[in-house]
Each structure stands twice: as C-alpha cells, then as structure tokens.
Amino acid sequence: MGRCILRLHETAALVAWMITGFTRLPGRWLRWQMFCRATFTVISLTGTTKDGRTEPVNVYDHLSPDSFILGPPQLQTAIDHLTRSGRYDRIDGHGRVLSARGEQTVEVRGSRVVL
Hints:
Layout: H1 2-20, E1 40-48, E2 54-57, H2 72-84, E3 90-99, E4 102-109, E5 112-114
Antiparallel strand pairs: 1-2, 1-3, 3-4, 4-5
C-alpha cells in the first residue's frame, strides 16, 4: 500500500512537471527548449518607391518557398536586396521578434533593422 501511494505521488509530480513545461511565462512563448531554438519575426513593412509612393512589403514574396523562420539578420538581408534591386528607395516598419529571450520590439527605420 505504501509503495502504491509513493508511485502515485511520483506520477503526479512528473505529470505536474511536464505540464508546467508547456505553460506560458511572461514575455515567453512555449518555454519548452524545443520551441525556443528558433527566432521568428512578425512585422509590418511599408516600402517607399523612387517616385514617393508607399506600398505594403511582404518579404516572404521575395524569399524561397521553404522560408518561414525569419530572424533580424535574415530580415536585414531581404531588405538590403529589395533596396539594392531598386524596387524600393526605403523600407520602414514595426513588429515583434519572438525567440528564446522572449518577445522584443523590432523596428525598421530607413531600411535598417533596429532592435
């Protein structure tokens, strides 16, 4: 009987520990390590053309079809490509970066990514 109660407590403790591994902490998203390895950027961008018109920019339209995780360095590379190609004179925007360090605000000012 004592062993059964001990096993029951051990099982309950293990289940509680596993459940807390998937709960949210302030500023974190899915704190389990597997989910914290990637960096995601959720951002709204506006491009200004040479003639002064503005239009929304979706950087994923200019990346390979398999691209879905975009961190700040990759975002900067895509913005550099779009401005060097002559498509846009400048790109601006704002959004959030999600990573193992939690959420951060990100801005794009004058075609430069600023964390």
